[in-house]
Design brief:
Layout: E1 4-7, E2 10-13, E3 16-17, H1 18-25, E4 29-33, H2 34-47, E5 54-58, H3 65-73, E6 77-80, H4 83-91, E7 99-101, H5 108-117, E8 121-124, H6 127-140, E9 144-151, E10 174-175, H7 179-186, E11 192-198, H8 209-227, E12 234-236, H9 253-269, E13 273-276, H10 280-283, E14 287-299, E15 302-307, H11 316-320, E16 326-328, E17 350-355, E18 364-371, E19 379-382, E20 403-408, E21 411-416, H12 421-425
Parallel strand pairs: 4-20, 5-6, 5-13, 6-7, 7-8, 8-9, 9-10, 9-11, 11-12, 12-13, 15-17
Antiparallel strand pairs: 1-2, 2-3, 4-14, 14-15, 14-19, 16-19, 17-18, 20-21
The structure holds ligand LLP.
Length: 436
C-alpha cells in the first residue's frame, strides 16, 4: 500500500533512510512518498476507468503546492473549499476547468474569484448562496457553472460523528426534497447554469454501501430534475473513501468501484460526467510525521514519552481520538513491527503514553501504546499522517510548523521549510502604534 518499510532494522521511505532525513531536516518533519501519491491516484483512476471520472483531489487534505503539482501532473483536478485553496490549486498549475468549489460559507469575494477563474463547477449549499452567485456572475458579465450539494440523509459506515456530513440536520448541503425548487429558481438566472448535483457523505466511510444508497437517491433526483426540463450533466460523488490506518480495514479501490460503477454507468452512458473528490485515501498513507523523544518520565501508573510533535502538528488524536500507528524508526532489540494493527503481537514491548510538548491536557498522540523500549533521543515515526496532518497544523503555543520533505526514489527535497520565529511575528510587525 505504501513505501514506508524497514530495511536492516531501520525505517525507510522509498530508498531514503528516515534517520538521515531527520538529521538533515530536524524534527518534527512530515515526509511524503511521491510514488505513493502517484500510485494512489493512478489506482483510483484505473478502478473507476469505466466512468472516466474527473478526479478532483480534496486540497484540504494535504495542500502543499508541490504535492498539488504532482497530482495535477498525474491528471487530477482539485476540490477546493476556500479562496485560499483555489489560489493554491491555480498556483500549483491545476487548470481551472478541473477545479470544483464546495463549502457552506463562501464569501462574495471567493465566489467572485471562482467566477473570474472560470472553474468547472461551484457547489452551492444554500438558496442564498445561489442568489449571491447569480448576482456576482451577472455583475461580472460572466456565466458560471454550478451544482447543488444535496444532503441525501445517509450515514457513512464507521464514520465518526464529528466527520459525518450527509445526515439530516447537518449544516452541509440542501435537503433532497428542497432541491427541485432551487433548480426552478436558478432557471430564472441568466448567469448561472445549474448543471449538476453534488454529494459528500463524510469521512472516512469504510464500506461502499452508503455511496450506493446515496447515489441511488441522487440519480432518482436527477431523473426528476430532467423530467422537469433541467439539463443535468454532472454528478459529483464527493470523497470519504477510507484509508487503512484507523480501527477499520479500508476496502480497496476495487471494492468501492465494483459497487459504485454499476450505479453510475447508465448516467455516464447517457453522456453524464462523474466527479470524485478523494483526499484521505490518496494522502494518508503517502505521508508520515517524524518526531523525536525528548524526555521519558513516570506519571502515576504511566510511562510517558514526551515527543517533539504535538497536537499543533497532528491534531487528529486530540480532536477525534483517531488512531495513528507509530513505531520507532530504529526499534530497540530489532523489534520491527509485523503489521500496523492497533495491537502488535511481539514479545518484549513496553507501554507508553506518547505526549506532545503543548500546554493542553489533550495533547497526546497516543495513550497506552505498546512499543519497543524507548530511549530519549529516539526517532518515532507516526504513520498515516499524510492526510489532515500538516493541513491542520497550527502555530499554537507560538510553535514553528514542521518542515515537509518529498521523497522520490533514492532522493528527497524540501517542499516546505520549517517556520521561523520571523514567520510567527511577521503579520503583526510594521503596523501603526506598534513600533517594537
Ligand atoms: N469533498 C468534500 C466536500 C469534503 O468536505 C471532504 C472532506 C472531501 C471531499 C474529502 O474527504 P476524504 O476523501 O479526505 O475523506 N479532518 C478530518 C476529516 C474532515 C473531512 C472534511 N471534508 C480528519 O482528520 O479525519
Amino acid at each position: 500500500m505504501d513505501r514506508f518499510r524497514y530495511h536492516d532494522g531501520v525505517l525507510r521511505c522509498e530508498g531514503v533512510d528516515l534517520e538521515a532525513l531527520a538529521v538533515e531536516h530536524g524534527t518534527p518533519t512530515y515526509v511524503y512518498s511521491r510514488d505513493t501519491f502517484r500510485t494512489h491516484l493512478a489506482d483510483l483512476t484505473a478502478a473507476f476507468a469505466e466512468l472516466d471520472p474527473l478526479v478532483c483531489y480534496a486540497v484540504k487534505t494535504c495542500s502543499n503546492l508541490h504535492l498539488l503539482h504532482e497530482l495535477g501532473a498525474g491528471g487530477a483536478g482539485a476540490d477546493v473549499v476556500s479562496g485560499g485553496e483555489l489560489h493554491r490549486a491555480l498556483t500549483a498549475g491545476i487548470p481551472a476547468e478541473r477545479i470544483v468549489f464546495a463549502g457552506v460559507g463562501k464569501s462574495e469575494e471567493e465566489l467572485r474569484e471562482a467566477v473570474a477563474a472560470g472553474i468547472a463547477c461551484v457547489n452551492i449549499e444554500s438558496e442564498s448562496e445561489l442568489e449571491l452567485l447569480a448576482r456576482v456572475a451577472q455583475s461580472m458579465g460572466r456565466t458560471v457553472r454550478a451544482a447543488i450539494r444535496v444532503n441525501p440523509d445517509v450515514q457513512g459506515h464507521g464514520t465518526p460523528e464529528k466527520t459525518t456530513t450527509g445526515t439530516k440536520g447537518s449544516k452541509f448541503g440542501i435537503d433532497l426534497e428542497r432541491v427541485p425548487r432551487l433548480f426552478t429558481r436558478a432557471a430564472l438566472f441568466d448567469h448561472v447554469r445549474l448543471i449538476g448535483v453534488h454529494v459528500h457523505l463524510g469521512s472516512p466511510i469504510y464500506s461502499p454501501e452508503p455511496y450506493v444508497t446515496a447515489l441511488t437517491r441522487v440519480l432518482e433526483l436527477v431523473d426528476k430534475l430532467r423530467a422537469d426540463g433541467h439539463e443535468i450533466e454532472l454528478v459529483n460523488m464527493g470523497g470519504g473513501f477510507a484509508a487503512e490506518y484507523e480501527t477499520g480495514v479500508a476496502p480497496g479501490w476495487g471494492a468501492y468501484a465494483n459497487a459504485i460503477v454499476p450505479v453510475l454507468k447508465p448516467f455516464v452512458e447517457g453522456g453524464g460526467r462523474v466527479v470524485m473528490e478523494p483526499g484521505r485515501s490518496i494522502a494518508a498513507n503517502a505521508g508520515v510525521l517524524l518526531t523525536r523523544v525528548r524526555y521519558l518520565k513516570d506519571a502515576g501508573p504511566h510511562r510517558v514519552a514526551i515527543v517533539d510533535a504535538g497536537m499543533n502538528n497532528l491534531i487528529r488524536a486530540a480532536l477525534y481520538d483517531s488512531f495513528h500507528f507509530m513505531w520507532p524508526v530504529r526499534p530497540a532489540d530489532g523489534l520491527v513491527p509485523p503489521g500496523r494493527a492497533e495491537r502488535v503481537a511481539l514479545p518484549g514491548l513496553s507501554t507508553y503514553d506518547i505526549a506532545g510538548p503543548i500546554c493542553e491536557s489533550t495533547d497526546y498522540l497516543a495513550r497506552e501504546r505498546e512499543l519497543p523500549r524507548l530511549t530519549e533521543g529516539d526517532l518515532v515515526c507516526i504513520f498515516g499522517a499524510g492526510a489532515y496532518g500538516m493541513a491542520m497544523a497550527s502555530q499554537y503555543n507560538s510553535s514553528l510548523r514542521p518542515a515537509e520533505v518529498l521523497v522520490d526514489g533514492e532522493g528527497s527535497r524540501l517542499i516546505r521549510r520549517r517556520d521561523t520565529y520571523a514567520d510567527l511575528v511577521e503579520a503583526e510587525l510594521g503596523l501603526p502604534g506598534g513600533e517594537f
